[in-house]
Structure formats: structure tokens, C-alpha cells
Write a structure and sequence with these properties.
Elements: H1 2-5, H2 10-21, H3 31-45, E1 51-59, E2 69-78, E3 86-92, H4 110-127, E4 137-142, H5 150-161, E5 166-172, E6 189-193, H6 198-213, E7 218-222, H7 234-240, E8 244-249, H8 269-287, E9 297-298, E10 306-309, E11 317-323, E12 331-335, E13 339-342, E14 350-351
Parallel strand pairs: 3-4, 3-5, 5-8, 6-7
Antiparallel strand pairs: 1-2, 2-4, 6-8, 9-10, 10-13, 11-12, 11-14
Length: about 350
């Protein structure tokens, strides 16, 4: 998988962010929004093997919507070969200016969320070069995120109603800032937010993979659903039952969020590339993975080792473990045949 990670290009990421920031605004209620949707659609269409469709979303009148209207969610697809739960990576395309009171204020949205869109496009470009994929991968460009996650709420509900099974949902929102005016700097880690349950287990696994394949760039597990008083497009997917996580920069500069000052010059594209590699690593590994093992059980014998059984399958499985007090996986082994004995790892002291 390293060959794809090395192909992530900070220069291409920067070009994507500058293109998006060149729109006066991408606010869902503006004319610039439709231009941005067309630009995004063309970007998807330029990637070989990727098909793209427009999913129209009704927007009811509300706090940031003066009168009822609609928006478009772009959903692109790289088809897989097997009937396995699919994967989805998403980021919101729209931007917002809450500071200036002009009728049509500038909202370049370079970091929020040109950075997330650039991560998604970089993953799409590289994953499309794989000769085969067991699982289908969806790429979602959400809109109306700044009006209350409305695009993601609608799309997650529609996909669920259509019977689309998703193994993992990865979202990136504001993954380009590395310093703030208080003097904090950090370009070595990205925060990963997750709710307890399947989403948390997805986050743990992504962190484990990054620990072993992307030296010098840490996935920092934040064991809560999101930041206080904030929201992201992973939320509706998680609430409907899909495992979903959110990546966000380690250091936010709140003074530039939702203002005309959210410009490309303040985005560290090499840092964005780190988050792109994390997403790419997870998607490439998962899209080649087989089905989850059925009926895993711990054998309840009295032993300093641990025996785990499951229904045998053609695919080997990887078993992870961590001490009960640890948030991160600490060890793993590959096993096959429906039974594994993990020597010297006491089941009383560990979670598997």
C-alpha cells in the first residue's frame, strides 16, 4: 500500500484548495454554489472509472434558510467486485461567512472545507488506479452543511432507505490549519472524533493502521462524538447506524472560521496531505478486505493465554487487543481456520 501513499501530492491539494477559494462564495443559497457544484462534478468526471450523480435535497426554511429551496449532493462511485458493505468518504463543499453583514459576503472557505474536499479528491484519484477493488467506494460532496448538516442528513437517510450497506464512513472537515494566534503549532497529528460503538472501533483501527504505516503523523483519538457546540457530516451517518468518524486539525484558528479570512495562504497543504494519506490507507485496506468474521468468541478457560474462535472462512482474520485501560490497540496477529491461541495475553486484562 505504500506505493499509493507516496503518490499523494501536496501541490495538487493546493491547486484544489485555490480553485475552490477562487469562488466568491460557495454558500448553498448563493449563485456561486451552483458554479462550485459544476466544478466539483467535472472533477469527479475527470477521474477514470468514477461515475457521478446528483442527489437533490429539499431544504426547509429555517435559521440560515430564508425560504424553502433545494440543494444538490454529488455522489460519485468506484464499483467493487463483491457484494460486501461499501465504503464512503465525504466532505462538505459549501462555505459560509458569518462575520460580514454584506448581502453577498466573500466566503473562500479554503480550510473550511476546501481542505476536506482536496483530501477526498486525492483519494478518489489514487484509488481509481487500483486494478481491482472488492468493495465499492462512494465519494460524497455534501452541501448545506453550514445550514445544519442538511445535505448529509438527507443523503444518509436516502442511502439507508435504498438498502446501501456501509462498512465505514470517513469525513474530513477543516484539516489544513497548523497554528493559531495564541502561539500553538502542531503539524504532526490530526484529531479523529468518534462516538462510542462501531464508530469508535473504526477510529481505533484507523489509528492503528496509521501508527504502522505513516511514521511521524499521529491519528489522535478523541473519545467523543465531536467538539462542543459543533457538528459535522459524520453525525447523521452515525445516528442512522453507520460507523462514521470525523478528522479535524489538531489546532483550530477560530478567528478565521466562517469569515472572509479563510484563505489558501493559511492552509498547510503538506499537513493536509498527511490526512489524505490516513484516509487513503484506510480506504485502500478496507476496499480489499473480506467479510467480517462471524460468531467470534473467547474460550472461557483459566489460562494466561487467550483462545478465540469464529466460524471458519476463506479469508484470514486479524485479531487486535489492548489493555482494558488503553484507548488504542496495542497488538495484533493474523489467524485462519476459525481458531487462534494468543500466547501470553491474558483475556482478563485485555479487550479483543
Amino acid at each position: 500500500m505504500q506505493h499509493l501513499l507516496h503518490q499523494v501530492e501536496p501541490e495538487r491539494i493546493e491547486a484544489t484548495i485555490r480553485s475552490l477559494a477562487s469562488f466568491h462564495t460557495r454558500n448553498t443559497l448563493s449563485s456561486g454554489y451552483q458554479e462550485a457544484v459544476n466544478w466539483m462534478e467535472a472533477k469527479f468526471q475527470s477521474i477514470p472509472g468514477l461515475t457521478v450523480e446528483r442527489r437533490r435535497t429539499p431544504l426547509p426554511a429555517g435559521k440560515r434558510i430564508m425560504e424553502a429551496t433545494e440543494s444538490v449532493q454529488l455522489l460519485a462511485t468506484l464499483p467493487g467486485q463483491d457484494d460486501l458493505p461499501a465504503l464512503l468518504i465525504g466532505a462538505h463543499l459549501d462555505s459560509l461567512n458569518l462575520k460580514d453583514q454584506d448581502e453577498n459576503p466573500s466566503a473562500p472557505g479554503a480550510n473550511d472545507n476546501g481542505s476536506g474536499i482536496s483530501v477526498m479528491l486525492e483519494c478518489a484519484r489514487l484509488l481509481a488506479t487500483l486494478p481491482e477493488r472488492r468493495r465499492t467506494i462512494y465519494f460524497a460532496a455534501f452541501t448545506a452543511e453550514e445550514q445544519g448538516l442538511l445535505g448529509a442528513k438527507h443523503l444518509s437517510a436516502v442511502l439507508h432507505a435504498e438498502g446501501i450497506r456501509l462498512q465505514a464512513v470517513l469525513t474530513s472537515d477543516m484539516v489544513g490549519n497548523t497554528f493559531c494566534q495564541e502561539g500553538r503549532r502542531d503539524s504532526s497529528r490530526v484529531r479523529c472524533f468518534s462516538a462510542d460503538g462501531p464508530s469508535r472501533e473504526l477510529a481505533r483501527w484507523v489509528a492503528w493502521m496509521a501508527d504502522h504505516a505513516i511514521p511521524g503523523f499521529l491519528v489522535d483519538l478523541i473519545l467523543r462524538h465531536d467538539r462542543f457546540g459543533r457538528g459535522g457530516d459524520h453525525t447523521p451517518f452515525q445516528q442512522i447506524g453507520y460507523p462514521a468518524i470525523r478528522f479535524t486539525e489538531a489546532v483550530e484558528e477560530y478567528r478565521r472560521q466562517h469569515t472572509a479570512d479563510d484563505r489558501p495562504d493559511f492552509v498547510d497543504c503538506h499537513y493536509v496531505a498527511g490526512t489524505a494519506r490516513v484516509n487513503l490507507l484506510a480506504l485502500e485496506t478496507l476496499c480489499q478486505s473480506g467479510p467480517a468474521p462471524r460468531s467470534p468468541k473467547i474460550v472461557l478457560d483459566q489460562s494466561h493465554s487467550t483462545t478465540i474462535t469464529w466460524e471458519p472462512t476463506e479469508d484470514p482474520v486479524r485479531i487486535y487487543w489492548r489493555e482494558t485501560s488503553s484507548a488504542r490497540w496495542q497488538g495484533s496477529t493474523v489467524a485462519a481456520g476459525g481458531r487462534a491461541v494468543i500466547q501470553g495475553v491474558n483475556k482478563d486484562d485485555h479487550i479483543f
